Predict the structure of DNA modification/repair radical SAM protein.
Amino acid sequence: MSRLGPQEKLAILADAAKYDASCASSGTAKRNSLGGKGIGSTEGMGICHAYAPDGRCISLLKVLLTNSCIFDCHYCINRKSSNVRRARFTVEEVVQLTLAFYRRNYIEGLFLSSGIIRSPNYTMEQIVEVARSLREDHDFRGYVHLKTIPDADPELVRQAGVHADRVSINVELPTAAGLRRLAPEKDGDRIEGAMKDMKNAIEEKRDARKRFKNAPSFAPAGQSTQMIVGADSANDGDIVQRAATLYGRFGLRRIYYSAFSPIPDASAILPLRRPPLMREHRLYQSDWLIRFYGFTPGEVAQTADDAGMLALDIDPKLAWALKFREHFPVDVNRAPRELLLRVPGLGVKAVDKILSSRRWRSLDLDDVARLTVSIAKVRPFITARNWRPTLLTDRVDLKRRLQPKLEQLELFAP
């Protein structure tokens, strides 16, 4: 590894980091270098490979400190027994690489994770030192997201929150049984303990900033986690319930779902095929329904089939509406916000605009059509000034009529 140049290390360690999905930079404090103070910014746009929930394109140098690891998790490409090319950055190399990329306007922040080398404490010290050096030695004001190691000393994990905008502590798999089977060296209780400690520290610092204006910030963008989907036997209902529990107990800002991808020289206990990417997408949609649309985990789970799997051909909100048609149609001129949010095809912004507009006039179908992408999806579930769905809501073939049409793309289309 010592003979590899920076370009070769970057090629190996940036590629090794692609399996980590939790790198969105939304929700942090605004900082910039206007007035000649410091370097970097958490604002603006750049060349990037990730998207924030608000739609911003964000540019992060997403890299591992090393892809060597003392653990042998079955699902991990960088596990100890994996036959992959290894590389390792020094702390100074990551710092200089981040600054150089920022000065060239390639990135607006850093996402840093790592395999475990020597020990969890040693690895955590190295990760924290990168962030400390950027902040204190170079006054870097861009976004920093650190992946922490729950087996490390709690004080080291806390130090990550001192220097980073967001921290991640991965639960890895949806169930405790899956974690014991596929990552026996990791302890689910210890992972949750680290997440609880981080939550408490974030809340304490937030309260301190309310009382004292000069109190230092601490992980202002909160903490997130990631679950691998399809590596174990957990169904979508299990995953949705687990996600809701994590949000409630640890105040997470985001949970990221990563579809399991078969790896070279894989263990015999892993599945041979990856799950459909649409399954990952449906879980994100379910996550959104719980966080922003007022659905309970149980309601989302009600849309699953007998095996506990969400439908792949339609989104979970439409699946719920089709299963519980007795709640529809909804009057867009009278219904409360919570009912309007359950109408397929109406997003949060559209509902807020409906509530605002109907204070001044009665809305017809054309008014609603201007607020949504697909009025055809909305029509069976609403009434308006000039519209009644009559028997449309109860049609036996309604699902087929509302399913997205499959389209064969042209291979050589411009």
User: Anything to note?
Assistant: The radius of gyration is 24 Å. The CA atoms of residues 82 and 379 lie 53 Å apart.
